Amino acid sequence: MAVFSYIAVEGSGTVAADSLRGARDTLRRRGLTVSRVDEVTAGEGRTRAGRWGAGRWGAGGRFDLKEVARELATLLGVGVPVVEAIEALSRSRRGKARAILDTLSERLRNGVSLADAMREPAVATHFDELSVQLVEVGEQAGTLEEVLDRLAEFRERRDELRSRLGTAMLYPGFVTVVAAGTSVFLMTAVVPKVLEPLRAQGRDLPAITKVVQSASEALVDYGLVLGLGAALLCLAGFWALRDERGKEWWHRMQLKLPLVGPVLRKQAMTQMAVAISTLQRSGIDFSRACALTARSTPQRVIRRALQDARDAVVNGSDVASALEATGQFPPVVVQAFAVGQQSGQLEKTLDRVAKTYEADVQRSTQRLTSMLEPVLIVLIAFLVGAIALATMLPILEASDVF
């Protein structure tokens, strides 16, 4: 089996196959639109068509750990030494990604392990502790290829989960911003010009018009002050969220939101289950896996709960009781840990939990989007309609008089 580099519309990388045709067939089955496939010669990092990854054929300057882990696992699987594999990956990239891989290969040439090379200050910010620990276990056990595959799969699932809710909220967020901008424009540019002649005539305006007029005058007269106040509030919030206590408070409030909170909790449970399952399958004991998962969990409330549960387990408590005592884990998750611990197959149990919650998160985000869209449309219609009615009503009353 040989290694082939490819260039596709969706990106570039490497694939293992028996022949050039087999490589193209594999890439097509993955749904990729391939424009170029070349065989990589181990050690030289060259293809039949010449050097690959130099300049225009590079995979880009962005460093993507899951992509690098997947391609490195492929090269290791066909017998390419780790140093030569990393150097081959480096030649397929440019910019920051190439610099990181060059640093790793240089340290490996100097006799340092891959995990220790990933801890080097020059590149350490690109590797979280969970990834480094997985690589270290893989090197010690001689299963680096398998561990890298698991790492790539874990990060793919984690990134997909993170982006799912963000994508679901993208449209509602865009609509809200457009509605706010339109309302401010109407209140500051349109309403004053329409109502000024009526006010000059001294006519008695309808109640809704007086409310809109007062709001319009406030925006026109104090718009700068209000904008500055909003900016200062945002800045104060930004600085507060940089503090660990501020982040935990904000994450706790997120979990209490009526519609978004349950989805965020399920998302956190899925990430936790996938992480612990991946670490356990790689040979890391539960206590260490729990600590690593806690440090890699962005949700501060769940992070603290995991740390408390881990401390309780170290002190002799069973896993299920420790998780239940925190009050942050659903009964299904607690029961899954209890069954997994009793059967000695915790990683398999957590995999099933992760898949269940993953599907639930997907359904929940779709429902959330489908619920928010009509609500926002109705609110926008009500807001714009109220402004239009407040503007047109006195004009219609004046025309009736004449």
Structure description:
With 402 residues, this protein is mainly alpha-helical. It has 15 helices and five strands. The protein has helices at 20-29, 65-77, 82-91, 95-109, 114-118, 129-141, 144-200, 207-242, 244-255, 260-281, 286-296, 300-314, 319-326, 331-343, 346-401, and strands at residues 2-8, 11-17, 34-40, 46-47, 50-51. The strands form two sheets. Strands 2-1-3 form a three-stranded antiparallel sheet. A hairpin with a 2-residue loop joins strand 4 (46-47) and strand 5 (50-51). Helix 2 runs antiparallel to helix 7 (144-200), helix 7 packs parallel to helix 15 and helix 10 crosses helix 11. It is elongated, with a radius of gyration of 29 Å. The protein starts with a strand and ends with a helix. The relative contact order is 0.08. Mean pLDDT is 82; it is low at 42-60.
Number of helices: 15
Based on Cα principal axes, name the global outline. Answer: elongated
Distance between the terminal alpha carbons, to the nearest Å? Answer: 91 Å
Q: What kind of sheet is the major sheet?
A: 3 strands, antiparallel
**Class from helix and strand fractions:** mainly alpha
User: What proportion of the residues form beta strands (DSSP E)?
Assistant: 5-15%
Helix content: over 70%
User: For the residues shown, what is the average pLDDT?
Assistant: 82
Secondary-structure element series: EEHEEEHHHHHHHHHHHHHH
* Strand neighbour order, sheet with most strands: 2-1-3
Provide the low-confidence segments as ranges: 42-60
Strands, total number: 5
Tell me the Rg in angstroms.
29 Å
